[in-house]
Structure formats: C-alpha cells, structure tokens
Amino acid sequence: MQRSNERFVERLPLVLPRPVYGYALSLLLCLLAWLARVAAETLLPVGYPFVTFFPAVILSSFLFGVRPGIFAAIIGGLLSWYCFIPPFYALAFNPGVAMALIFYTMVVAVDILLIHFMQRANFNLAVERERSRALAENRELLFRELQHRVSNNLQVVAAMLSLQRRQIDNDVARRALDDAAARLALIGKISRALYDPSGQGQELRAFMVMLCADIVDASGRTDIDCTICAPDGLSLEPDVIVPLALIVAESVSNAIEHGLPDRAGRVAVTLEQQADGALHLRIVDDGRGLPDGTMPDGPTSIGLRIAVALAQQLGGRFRLEPAPDGGAMACLDLPQQTR
C-alpha cells in the first residue's frame, strides 16, 4: 500500500491529455468550495470569507500543478471578495478589503510554493531512484558477466591440464593433473552456483544435495547412496561456503574412491549447527575403513591436506578417523560462521 502511494505521488502533478482540463477541474473545485462556503454561511462567524477556498487552491496545485493552482487562487479570491466580503456583490475596495486580499494572497502563495518545491523534490527523488535502479541492474549484469568469465577461465585451465596429461607418461603425474583439473572445474562450478551480486548467502542444504549428486555422477558410480542431513534455512557467506563445499567434495570423493572402490555403499553427510552458531560436519561411509598407517591428525593424500588447509583458513579443524560402525569418518568443526 505504501509503495502504491509513493508511485501515485511520483506522478504528481498529473499530466492530463490537455492542459485545459486542469483549469476546468480547478474551476470545478472552486465552485464546490463556493457552495461549501454558502452552505456554511450561518455556521461561520463574520471574517472568514476565504476559509473553504484554501483547500481548493491546495488541491489544484497538488493535482494539476502551479498554474492551475494560481488560477484557482484567483477564482477563489474573486468569489470570496464578491460574495463574502461586505459590501456583498459589489467588489468594493477599501483598506479592510485590501488587508484581507493581501492576507489571502500571502497564504495561497506560500501554499502553492511549498507544494511546487515538494513536488520538484519528489520528482528529483524519483529520478535518483530510477538511476539507482539502473545502476543496480548494471552492477548485477557486470557481476554475472565477471563470474561467468571467471568460471569459464577456470574451465579452460582445467581443460588445458587435461590436454597436458596426454603428453605425460608417468602415471603419478597424470593422476595429479587429473585431480588438479577436476578441482579447478569444481571450483568454477561452485563459484557460478554460489556467488550472488546481492551478497545474500546460499541456502546450504539444497546446495549440498546438488553438490553431492554431482560428485557421485562424476565418479561414474550408480551404486553409491549419498544422503544429506542439514538444517533447513541455514545459509553461509560465499567466502565460507566455497571452502566448505571443497572440503565436502574432497571427503565424499575420497570415501567413494578409497572406502568404496569395488562395492556398493552409503555415504552420509551430516551438518549440525550448535546453539552458539558453531558448525559440525560429519561425512561417514560404510566402506573398508582407514588403511594402516593413516593417522587421524596426519592425512597423507593431497586431497586431505587441502581439506586441512581449507579448515584452518576458516578457523576450524578437519580430521579423518574411523567411524563408530566401521568405515571412515571425516570431521570438520567450524566456529560461528552464519550471518
């Protein structure tokens, strides 16, 4: 309702098809004011000849502009002088009449000027609002274009790494390039999905469902059941959720590749938020468990070292440990990060 009123006020004074309509309607308002003054003749004491004409002048100026307002002020003044200032119906002029007309002129002039400056200020405000809207649209367009180009560049780098691996015979080096290309492609995809020019956080549960589904699809496995458990409505800042998403991607990929390499299985991703805002992430698989020699606080693979570094970047802690019911469990503890 308030916004509707703002839009109506921004259109004032009304632009009628022909200017004469504004004068005609102003004349009608003056006639209505005259009828109201005649009807109130017995109720008003002597000395209020202009009282019903002030609203007519204000409405004419407010609705139709300065010139119809001046027109209404002149008509209202003449009708008051002729009908309600003694001697009646004579347009007599004397010092008392002069003072009354001067007073009326001053009041209506102030009314018209105030309305005029108010509408000019309102018009300028509407122009600035429209300019701000256009700037916001341009900002959003440029931001999306920037994000698109950044994501495309990451995809290009990933493709270049994939091409480079064809010239390498060493299996370890080829595997490293494959992993790097996959991580770059994932970062590009996450950036495109998450970043918003408005600065709003991403709803985490829906994003994690999409992310884990993409990871399982990328693995080429159809026998992996990946479930997500996270609070509804939980959102994080983009600079937090990107490292968090990479940790989830590394942990789920590690569970599929090393925990469930040759059989069907289940990966459960659980995110809990504590009363103080801290986050606890658990990624549990029912696979073969941790290999001998792998310590909970000392992951040896590059992917798990990346997860540890990202957790430290967020001020948290990442660890890999045996799951209570068999398999492996990746744990991430973060301090308060929500908006």
Automatic annotation (TrEMBL):
GO terms for molecular function: ATP binding; protein histidine kinase activity. InterPro entries: HATPase_C_sf, HATPase_dom, His_kinase_dom, KdpD_sf, KdpD_TM, Sig_transdc_His_kin_sub2_dim/P. The chain crosses the membrane at residues 20-40, 46-64, 71-91, 97-115. Its EC number is 2.7.13.3. GO terms for cellular component: membrane. Its main location: membrane. Keywords: ATP-binding, Kinase, Membrane, Nucleotide-binding, Phosphoprotein, Transferase, Transmembrane, Transmembrane helix, Two-component regulatory system. Pfam families: DUF4118, HATPase_c, HisKA_2. One of its GO terms (biological process) is phosphorelay signal transduction system. It is a multi-pass membrane protein. The keyword Signal does not apply. The keyword Cell wall biogenesis/degradation does not apply. Residues 244-338 form the Histidine kinase domain. It catalyses: ATP + protein L-histidine = ADP + protein N-phospho-L-histidine. It is found in: Membrane. This is histidine kinase. It comes from Sphingobium yanoikuyae ATCC 51230.
